[in-house]
Amino acid sequence: MTLQSVLDDLRKLPGTGEVIPIIDPATEETITEFTDCGPEAVDAAVARARAAFESGVWHGLPGRERAKIMWRIADLMDERAEELAQLDSLNTGMPLAQARMIVPTCAEFFRYYAGWCTKVNGTAHDVQMTGGISGAYANMHAYTLKEPYGVVGLIFPWNGPVFNACAKLAPALAAGCSMIVKPAEETPLSALVLDRIIAEAGVPEGVVNLLNGYGHTAGAALTAHPGVDKIAFTGSTEVGKEIVRASAGNLKKVMLELGGKSPVLIYDDADLDMAIMMAAMGIFVHSGQGCVCGSRIFVQRGVYERVVEGITTVANNLKLGGPKDEGAMISPLISAKQLTRVMGYIDEGKRDGVEVVTGGHRLDRPGYFVHPTVLTNVDPATSRLYKEEIFGPVVTILPFDDDDEAVALANDTTYGLAATAWTTNLSRAHRIAKRLQAGTVTLNCQLVFDHAVPFGGYKQSGWGHEFGREGIEAYMQTKSVWAQL
Ligand code: NAD
After folding, report:
1. Rounded mean pLDDT of 133-142?
2. β-pairing, 296-300 with 394-400?
3. Residue nearest to atom 13 of ligand 1 (CA)
4. Which residues have C-beta within 8 Å of that of residue 349, sequence separation ≥ 6?
5. How far apart are the C-alpha atoms of 45 and 29, rounded to whole Å?
């Protein structure tokens, strides 16, 4: 398929709602559009998914057969990796080289979870209460079964379209669920190709159902739908709370991967060159539009000036640009809405007396580009930009004196997605790791990921885990079976 044919196919998708334009964030030009699927399409998708689940056409297959089909998905993704990378690059404005690095990792989700298809088992239990509650039974036996939840809704954001889709599709398929997939309205392009790959690989009809539409229409209808058993959501904490409320009707299960305001601690004994470079990239990569971006940096006082200067130098040397701009390293923000939001936080900070060391303005060119921004002199007690997730290339840097102060500052947030410490004192690194209130702690590294390592948020950064064994178990429920022998 050519890129143009994907753009044309999106335009032709049936729908009954509003027409939604797809904007190239690097040029602000409209590249295509589609029609919001409308409520009837949500009902129809849930009905198809339910029928597929009840028929057992997918979860009834032996695990090894599901695994083969999942390997085929990964192989087809590899064959079409360039097309997927180009679509994500066009749709998000991310450098093509970055998209080309990400897509193979996404295919690996299917290979990794294909392995789990044959390895998730229940357990047999040694029953201690031999008489049972009534005392009437002897020789009891109990075991558990791991069963797919049923029909699950997968809802995810725009910041890594192929990655976000595969992170949910692969474990949900491995678990044997049927699913309705709702990508972000800003980035529907690569999901269209993935949907075809999944069908071509042999996943039976009705198991995976793609819906395109706004969050407040298609997403909300899916979340409230009585025919959906579980929602797996990645997105903002604010929408996560709406999803919890909307799910209450049928008490559907909910998994949430939400926002963050992740702290990075840099000690005076750290490898400072490395810490400065990684802490800078840890916030400015993809213009700060990553859930684990380290948006609050704390530096031990003795090296504070040096680190502020170092991060500022990196910020000033990063070349921003879209896929067509030679040598671009940093993508634009996704939308005009996001640009207004990010600039709103910066302007409010300026009014409050925050010091703008560098950045603080958008670039004088088309596209939603904000210069990487370093802020100091921030009041942790009152500053909104310090407390709230901005999801932009904006970092605050504050000094600290000792471990207790560093941990107190790091943990003083309603979020708990990720945290980092840079120090060559390994005892301290592990002591600090225990004290940081975050689902992922990285020591002397940032932006790390593996399919096998569980990922999830503490506090208001989420419920449940993705990746690893926890990732497939998130799509399965446990049944206990008792028998009198
Ligand atoms: P968002 O919450 O606005 O939207 C995410 C998805 O939810 C989109 O598909 C959207 O259409 C849908 N949605 C919106 N309103 C809805 C509703 N009422 N009901 C159902 N669905 C609805 O998030 P965003 O602005 O697109 O993405 C950025 C956010 O995502 C940031 O907060 C970021 O931290 C978070 N994020 C978290 C992770 C993680 O793994 N923890 C990963 C990536 C992004």
Report:
1. 80
2. parallel
3. 215
4. 356, 375, 378, 383, 385
5. 32
State yes or no: is 257 an active-site residue: yes
pLDDT tens track for 227-276: 999 999 999 999 999 999 999 999 999 999 999 999 999 999 999 999 99
Cβ atoms of 170 and 66 closer than 8 Å:
no
Mean pLDDT of the chain: 97
Amino acid found at 432? I
For atom 8 of ligand 1, the residue with the nearest CA is: 184
Which pLDDT score is estimated for 130?
64
Q: Give catalytic status of residue 79 as yes or no.
A: no
Angle between helices 272-284 and 304-317 (to 10 degrees): 50
How far separated are the first and last CA of the chain, in Å rounded?
60
Instruction: Give the Cα-Cα-Cα angle 95, 101, 107 (nearest 5 degrees).
Output: 130
Whole-prediction pTM value? 0.97
Q: Which of 234, 413, 447 to mutate to test the pocket of ligand 1 (most atoms within 8 A of CB)?
A: 234
Distance (angstroms) between ligand 1 centre and the Cα of 464 equals: 16
CB-based pocket (< 6 A), ligand 1: 155-159, 182, 184-185, 214-216, 219-220, 223, 234-236, 239, 242-243, 257-260, 291, 389, 391, 417, 457, 462
Name residues whose C-beta falls within 8 Å of residue 421's C-beta, 6 or more positions apart in sequence: 264, 265, 267, 428, 429, 432, 433, 436, 441, 442, 443, 444
- Closest Cα to atom 22 of ligand 1: 215
Distance 399 CA to ligand 1 centre (A): 32
**How many angstroms does the Cα of residue 239 sit away from the middle of ligand 1?**
7
Angle at 196 between CA 191 and CA 202, to 5 degrees: 130
Catalytic residue among 185, 186, 257, 466: 257
Residue 131 reports pLDDT greater than 70 = no
pLDDT score of 140: 87
For residue 338, the CA-to-ligand 1 centroid distance in Å is 13
The tally of CA atoms less than 13 A away on the side-chain side of residue 472 is: 25
Q: Are 284 and 386 in contact (CB under 8 A)?
A: no
Q: Over the stretch 183-200, which tens digit does the pLDDT of each residue have?
A: 999 999 999 999 999 999
416-462: per-residue pLDDT in tens?
Answer: 999 999 999 999 999 999 999 999 999 999 999 999 999 999 999 99
Outline where 117-229 has alpha helix (H).
Answer: 161-175, 189-201, 220-224
Ligand 1 atom with minimal separation from the 257 CA: 41
Q: Among residues 291, 169, 290, 157, which one has the least CA distance to residue 219? A: 157
